[in-house]
Amino acid sequence: MEYRSITDIEGIYAASATNAEAGTGCTVIICPEGATGAVDVRGGAPATRETDLLRPEETVQVLHAVVLSGGSAYGLAAATGVMEELERHDIGLDVGVGKVPIVSGACLFDLACGSASVRPTAAYGVEAVRSALDNPAEPLTRGNVGAGTGCTVGKLGGPARAMKTGLGECVESCGELVCGAVAAVNAVGDVVNPNTGSPVAGLLDEAGERLTSSVDALLSLAAAMPLARTNTTISCVVTNAKLTKAEATKVAQMAADAYAHAIRPTHTTNDGDSIFVMATGKVAYPVDVVGALATKALEGAIVDSARSAEGAFGLKAACDLA
């Protein structure tokens, strides 16, 4: 079959809740049956939830949802709403006296885009879950939505030279193996096409007309004070592969290369970069094949986050450049 979205992967549901005026929102990816989960965190300033239990040595073996959210650390509240709504749908880990949904998540800093006082709450998580479960055939909306609503890149020259990005998605397949990725790109650096090396969105020149290099700008600012920790790229890779937690962790580690391929610079002290993996366990493939395909999908999602965004809050997007 032709895969348009991660919602075409059997057993996966996804949707977003968006506050376009305030420039924030959240995106939820759900596997009601429970996926094998993993995470890789490489940024220097992460805001995350329930990442310790995803380590291979921990006993919990299922992951029911991943929440990608704006709002900085305040946005972690959205995951509470996701848990509550999944429980109402009888989704979760059976603990004898009830079911506990296993929900992991990460947040990005979008408080400087739109309203700093409006952040995703539990109600956002509830809305996203209801939208995902009520509309299972709907592809995930991309661009200025969900966790991507307030995303920007290229911020080394200040807000006047930054650009708007958003929520991106890409699905790749190889035989029966499918890997899809969702990314909300709010990096300090630039988004580049890893196939050509050409910039897609990032630091604009002083005239605001052409793209320049964030790496060159960073090197020229070598003796300056570092930027505030206001940047992060958060993403989730979904695959139908059969993986152990250790294998899923390796896939997350391999997929982190997509950040290095498509964002320059990346994993800085000012970024909170995190990658989740959800494996539904339908087909058996070597872990290296899964990791390579996941990396390709995440590269595509990062580039799509720039190409699908629209200009907003006085910022240009890739579609606005000549």
Summarize the structure.
With 322 residues, the chain is of the alpha+beta class.
Question: On the 0-100 scale, what is the average pLDDT?
Answer: 93
The gyration radius over C-alpha positions equals 18 Å
Count of structural domains: 1
At CATH level 2, the architecture is 4-Layer Sandwich
Any idea what the shape is?
Answer: globular
Low-confidence stretches: none
Range of strand content: 25-35%
CATH class: Alpha Beta
CATH topology: L-amino peptidase D-ALA esterase/amidase
Order of helices and strands: EEEEHEEEHEEEEEEHEHHEEH
Largest sheet: 9 strands, mixed
Q: Can you give the helix content as a percent range?
A: 10-25%
Alpha-beta content class = alpha+beta
Number of alpha- plus pi-helical segments:
6
Q: Got a strand count?
A: 16
Assigned CATH superfamily: L-amino peptidase D-ALA esterase/amidase
Report the span from N to C terminus: 36 Å
Topology diagram in text:
Elements: E1 13-19, E2 24-41, E3 48-49, E4 63-69, H1 77-88, E5 93-94, E6 99-100, E7 103-107, H2 122-134, E8 152-153, E9 163-164, E10 167-174, E11 177-186, E12 190-192, E13 199-201, H3 214-220, E14 232-241, H4 245-255, H5 257-262, E15 263-264, E16 274-283, H6 287-307
Parallel strand pairs: 4-7, 14-16
Antiparallel strand pairs: 1-2, 2-4, 2-16, 3-7, 5-6, 8-9, 10-11, 11-14, 12-13, 12-15
